[in-house]
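Q: I have four molecules that I believe assemble together. Could you output structure tokens for the complex as a whole instead of separate predictions?
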Amino acid sequence: MSHNSFGHLFRVTTWGESHGPAIGCVVDGCPPGLPLAEADIQPFLDARRPGTSRHVTQRRELDAVRILSGVFEGRTTGTPIALEIGNKDQRSKDYGEIARSFRPGHADIAYHLKYGVRDYRGGGRSSARETAMRVAAGAIARRVIGPGVTIRGALVQIGADRVDRARWDWEETRRNPFWCPDAATAARWEDLLNATRKAGSSLGAVIELVAEGVPPGLGAPLYGKLDAEIAAALMGINAVKGVEIGDGFAAASLAGEENADEMRMRQDGTVEFLANHAGGVLGGISTGQPIVARFAVKPTSSILTPRRAVTVEGEETELRTVGRHDPCVGIRAVPVGEAMLACVLADHLLRHRAQNPDAPGQPRLPRENA
Amino acid sequence: MSHNSFGHLFRVTTWGESHGPAIGCVVDGCPPGLPLAEADIQPFLDARRPGTSRHVTQRRELDAVRILSGVFEGRTTGTPIALEIGNKDQRSKDYGEIARSFRPGHADIAYHLKYGVRDYRGGGRSSARETAMRVAAGAIARRVIGPGVTIRGALVQIGADRVDRARWDWEETRRNPFWCPDAATAARWEDLLNATRKAGSSLGAVIELVAEGVPPGLGAPLYGKLDAEIAAALMGINAVKGVEIGDGFAAASLAGEENADEMRMRQDGTVEFLANHAGGVLGGISTGQPIVARFAVKPTSSILTPRRAVTVEGEETELRTVGRHDPCVGIRAVPVGEAMLACVLADHLLRHRAQNPDAPGQPRLPRENA
Amino acid sequence: MSHNSFGHLFRVTTWGESHGPAIGCVVDGCPPGLPLAEADIQPFLDARRPGTSRHVTQRRELDAVRILSGVFEGRTTGTPIALEIGNKDQRSKDYGEIARSFRPGHADIAYHLKYGVRDYRGGGRSSARETAMRVAAGAIARRVIGPGVTIRGALVQIGADRVDRARWDWEETRRNPFWCPDAATAARWEDLLNATRKAGSSLGAVIELVAEGVPPGLGAPLYGKLDAEIAAALMGINAVKGVEIGDGFAAASLAGEENADEMRMRQDGTVEFLANHAGGVLGGISTGQPIVARFAVKPTSSILTPRRAVTVEGEETELRTVGRHDPCVGIRAVPVGEAMLACVLADHLLRHRAQNPDAPGQPRLPRENA
Amino acid sequence: MSHNSFGHLFRVTTWGESHGPAIGCVVDGCPPGLPLAEADIQPFLDARRPGTSRHVTQRRELDAVRILSGVFEGRTTGTPIALEIGNKDQRSKDYGEIARSFRPGHADIAYHLKYGVRDYRGGGRSSARETAMRVAAGAIARRVIGPGVTIRGALVQIGADRVDRARWDWEETRRNPFWCPDAATAARWEDLLNATRKAGSSLGAVIELVAEGVPPGLGAPLYGKLDAEIAAALMGINAVKGVEIGDGFAAASLAGEENADEMRMRQDGTVEFLANHAGGVLGGISTGQPIVARFAVKPTSSILTPRRAVTVEGEETELRTVGRHDPCVGIRAVPVGEAMLACVLADHLLRHRAQNPDAPGQPRLPRENA
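A: Yes, here they are, computed for all four components at once.
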């Protein structure tokens, strides 16, 4: 049991604090013989990197990843892959207030209550900086899953403003700084975030992830369920407060006949589902339909507005957070969510393969008994 | 790694199919010396038991639990506790259609695609019957947690009809067959479910869980987060499609200053939070505030309305499910959700204790460094 | 983390005390579609069963195993397999002395010191009775491994009397009550054990296990080593105090050129090792040679000779164990050792398959990179 | 499940190859508030370091460890501790023969058969270099265990030459380059190893570990046994082929009355054992007596004597290993064995504490039920 690892057969352990000398992770269980180089990981880190638009924290980090083990002559060897990123832009400053006080809505006080000690510099271990390693691990997970599976994420809501789904265009997510799949919405968000930043406030967000091409059979009853582990992976991202699979909470309002996805057969003998309310998972197992998951990110607690707080010594105080921070941390959560989903899928792919040497690629019927 | 276990130090492994000779579980890691008898578990099973109102499945099971190991002279011994419940009311019938066809929205097809074989009788392993063992394990978890922690659940929504929170009364949840905390809403639901059952349809639901008295410090960064593991536990319950902690998805619409729970000091030197948007968890660690979680249950896929489906042989068919079934499985999910939350808390209590021999009981400041 | 489970992908959890109503286990991770019935398990239990010769405990148990889940129409379904054996011959007696005193060399006092409570009836959880479930799980493990792998055990030493290896005959192990591979030695042991039993004493033993046909590639660097997990599995059997792989402790006395197994190529392109000092494992990974392991079992602590002991109340006493007991528990450890080795191999086979979909069957060179 | 991790609550994951840029580990689960600096770890690394006498490999490494996370202002924070050591002395050379051939008795061929690819430079992942990280983790484990527990190791046999136990002096282990507890034996070994090195050969060894002051109650039935996990930890060290607890294999030759350690009460109400054949463990649980374990290390396979081998291409060849190597790797295994034992004890201490908040410090009777 590790509090800093996730996955079972594709297993990632991360370490590091925001203002320590470096952050890193160990990826254990990656199959041998896969081509892998730093250049395969770096683009995903660049996409997550802070400082890339004025809507995210202005911390400047190159986030250049180094592979320290597990790769030989350009291929994975089956031994653990260690990744490391140096911390460069740890602004030297007086941490007096943050060291002594607990920001409302921040993990500060929880760490203090649990451990009695915390590295308060830049949020320490609870900093979103750690998510860089998740993104790096996710890049390796994509290698394991292979090119047949496409994992994409989009921001579908900032504050109360939702994207127009009728205008959904995946290509658009790469053209605006919000991963927004709709240009018109992106334009509104530009204004919304500018106003929020000026007001010294912050906003929450909702991210939607879609994985296409996932083979059926991943996951398992009853506690190794694919959807349960996706839920844990997404809820474990900083600031996340809700997770949905498929229709999610909206499914509660549906009648049984609306919710159950009907099926028919395609000409080629594969099963076609006529809808995807289930979000690609039934009974904890993938069906071959696209996996659809959403998660909600709360607004950053580090804001300029003064808030009532308490100190380490048990005194009452007022606190406002000055410095570089994201007005909407949800934006940078998009590549992190993609990476977590990739890691869960890679893990379950290996787990499925262990029990089913001839794991099927498509939901084709009938399937012979072993 | 077990696909049929949950928890780490308080670890539950369940087994059994709906129509096999019995279902059971093994609870490993229960501390020694705790008083425990079958009578401590049975009331929770009785509350979950089918056949108790016309709004749940009419299967008749006494669900009499037997303790087969791990208890000696009325006390736990620290060795694994085996629990078992015999299956009595497995109506002998022709399973022809269910054996040959896949119900839309049901785990049938996923099991088939993964394993190529399934016990189709009564849903086999995917039957809600298995949740009896979760409830039994939850009763032991409550013993581990101790009487200082209160874990309660309520149904807050059936279909699109939500409870009136202004009229919330925990006592009321014991007076109606819906675990509804508001008598007026319960009356409406009575009519709603009658109509639904007559129409041969089904409805989804939302359950809210509240755990009060949870000590601060349970959970951990970053992948052993309390909220992440609650999310996995609840998403792993049959038919669940969404999970929220605290404000959940609504947090996305809040501004930072609305969402961050302010703090002040009480006279007795403990921290008081002025709100609980966080649902009792910050940075994956409990703060001492009530833990609040919600989960959404989709409508049962077993309905009378005919639906397009496919067969094991790959032929198209129409399917309607005749027989005893819940018009709203969400009702019976309330004690199951409570039990899962109890198990997660028991597990984290033991985990916290391992690292912190003097685990604090209340969020009192200052806490001395070890 | 479970203290009562072993294996990762082929995972066995046992429960039960010597004099409780039953003992049982849950086997999780068994691949689907394998033919399995109680008749596949029972013969292994019969071989281990007490009361079969005067050299083992005279407790009379039919040890009839029941499969309670995970098998449907004669095939495994991929869901957990629950096995159970009722306890019949729990002689009702006065446990006064055993309840109050700690037998020298017995787990009694350790349980007391750890838990403060113990089920003293028949040794409770520490009774060799639990090993019946290991044997049952081992029968399923053999199904997973398949008929190409042969796992056999033999008793090679009782007390200081060792078997004559020049006369080794596997068939002979089935003809005498000692699993002795040499008839002449078996005859000596008959006399030795009669004398030991009459003297109210007991003797230790050494068991050797050989697994032939194991494919290369099972195991892994560095902490999932095949030999390390075999060592844990064997050391975890009751009363075991030592474990060896291949030459074991004798390897310490060899020169490097004696110990290193030379290789050449066979006509068919496979590697032939010219010796097997390594016992089939190099760097924690199987090489395709026979796996050879040995373990030492201490003499039973339950003897007629009076011994100085202490009581629960902290008083000094003298203790002698009256009742049915094995003069040499090592005899019954042979099928238990075989079963544990089978479980470890099944687990590693699944683990290997997860990372290597085209796991090779024979040490043939060259192997193409994936 | 990680193939490169060990421990459960005190969990160590190592990474790195002999000739990569660095090696490292992540220690997860270390309790917060413990004083820790690089200076607490370095002395243990210095003791293990190669190049310190002519009897061990002449590779020159400073082995300067860096703490990259998990420590703040000189104290552990409860977050993962990352340690790293740079590789300096990776002699650039032609690896042609080692790259193309498999050394007899070496892990080379096993890696090839499993993975189809391997980092052959300096042994890659199978190099003894990795054990530096175990030693570093062991230093942290000692912090967790506390100063009341003393863990020491000694070399008790090189080749067939055993130490004279009557002359055992722990102080002497620090005065000679062999960790030999007897000066006379050490003098003989000096000659023995010089001769072995000149002959281009190598020798095996046996190491004995003793942990004093271990509290009773560590470990658990039945698969989380303290001795089973010690066995796995020691068998997992490079080149180890046998493990014993207490009397080990010699216990097989004892009669029951010889082997069972008698008990009496001390004046202060604690239990005194009159012997320690059990090596401090009964039923998988520590009794408060010294933990005694031994392990056998085979002779290095890298020797000057030509040996029959095969190549990657499946051709027969003759091989001799030229270069810097240990004539007796067992020497450097002493601090590694100590470290592994420390890690197992730290892990079990935390595990015990989880279930027993008031874990007793001494085997004092009676113990009140919880």
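A: One point stands out. Residues 333-355 of chain C form the longest helix (23 residues).
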